[in-house]
Amino acid sequence: MTQVVIHGLGLIGCSLARAIKLGHPDVTIVGSDVQPASLSYAKQHQFVDEVTTDFSKAALDAEVIILAGPVSVITADLATLAQLTLKPNVIVTDVGSTKQTVMAAAQPLQQQGITFIGGHPMAGSHKSGVAAGRADLFENAFYFLVPGVASKTAVAQLQELLAATKVKWLTVTPRQHDRLVGQLSHLPHVVAAALVNQTQLALADSPMGLRLAAGGFKSVTRIASSDPTMWTAILLNNPTVVVSQLQAFSAELATVTTAIEAGDGQALTEFFTAAKTTRDHLGPEHLGSLPNFYDLFINIPDRAGAIAAVTQRLAQANLSLVNIHILEIREEVDGVLQLTFGNAATHDAAVALLAAADYQIVRKR
Ligand SMILES: NC(=O)C1=CN([C@@H]2O[C@H](COP(=O)(O)OP(=O)(O)OC[C@H]3O[C@@H](n4cnc5c(N)ncnc54)[C@H](O)[C@@H]3O)[C@@H](O)[C@H]2O)C=CC1
Ligand SMILES: O=C(O)C(=O)Cc1ccc(O)cc1
């Protein structure tokens, strides 16, 4: 029976665990994490068979090891694994968002003849943690593979193990990978966070400030809600690429600034037309899988226990939440509660349940 160890039971580790369980119910999955609460959640929801905080010990018996912590943890894990006597046919892989530093960190392991295949699913979310994982998170998304010196057989074995993710495999070199994702993922996260921080400062004296933002600001900045630890590790592991891409992006901003200063309408129209043409040709089908969580917004009165009453109702009906977020609650005024579900059926059942209990539905999926 194959034993798979997943180190890091967050959004990605848990989504892979759920997908592996779906495609291979016979595989034993051992989940490992530093957070005991994540371990008990994973065990309770049965997408792992065993849990441990002792990664090194679990690794000794593994046929497949999936490293799914922040990139800085993945590189440290690779150093730890190089100190151990692993099973000779073990396949070690990772899900980290950078590949040059990860492949470099894997070298000592590879020099011992251990198979390492770099991996990176190009799907995810700004949500994180053990409860956010879902088996269909990666459906139709690209999944980068950096096989390095790994054999074709090992690559095929890994792809077979992860078949239920329904990803589109793409083999790249570490350099190609970091340049591509630098531009398509790392730079946008920096830009989104910078825009939120600058707006917060600029509107600090406005009573409603950021809350007045419409859809545009919200969609451009959604990813600013991503996990700070994870993104710090990513940028520290792709610095040269991202710095150069940030410089090119700053130059683009300088060009548009000059056009506005000069009142150059033609330059501005050309600027927006070029972007629109490119963006319009990227339909949703070309953008890969976008986070597919199911949000429900309800009005919530400013009353002690009001939120608990909602969560209790959902729990009694066995409807699990992926996330809960109070968007706004002001004294003596209704607030808005955002309830996020992992699938359409749970979302729809919650809408019916809460509407029947006279909660006002502000927006559903
Ligand atoms: N979030 C996303 O959309 C995507 C993330 N990635 C990459 O996947 C990896 C995991 O990301 P997420 O699952 O989103 O993060 P997450 O924050 O949801 O989960 C990370 C998990 O690693 C655990 N962890 C942290 N330090 C640890 C340590 N020293 N030992 C063991 N466990 C530790 C945390 O407790 C947490 O459970 C990262 O390397 C990230 O760059 C890749 C594709 C998409
Ligand atoms: O939330 C989003 O849209 C993302 O961009 C998710 C994401 C985050 C990190 C990655 O390495 C890949 C995908």
Keywords:
four-stranded antiparallel beta sheet; Alpha-Beta Plaits; 365 residues; 14 helices; binds 1,4-dihydronicotinamide adenine dinucleotide; alpha/beta; eight-stranded mixed beta sheet
- Assign an overall shape: globular
Q: Which oligomeric state applies?
A: single chain
The number of helical elements comes to 14
What is the architecture of one domain at the second tier of CATH?
3-Layer(aba) Sandwich
Enzyme class: oxidoreductase
Catalytic activity: prephenate + NAD(+) = 3-(4-hydroxyphenyl)pyruvate + CO2 + NADH
EC number: 1.3.1.12
Pfam families: PDH_C (PF20463), PDH_N (PF02153)
Any overview of this molecule?
About 35% of the residues are buried. The protein is of the alpha/beta class and about 375 residues long. The chain has 14 helices and twelve strands. Among the domains are: about 5-175, Rossmann fold; about 295-365, Alpha-Beta Plaits, CATH 3.30.70.260. The protein is globular and about 65 Å long. The strands form two sheets. The protein has an eight-stranded mixed β-sheet. Strands 10-11-9-12 form a four-stranded antiparallel β-sheet, covered by helices on one side. The structure holds 1,4-dihydronicotinamide adenine dinucleotide and 3-(4-hydroxy-phenyl)pyruvic acid (ENO). 3-(4-hydroxy-phenyl)pyruvic acid binds near residues 122, 124, 125 and 223.
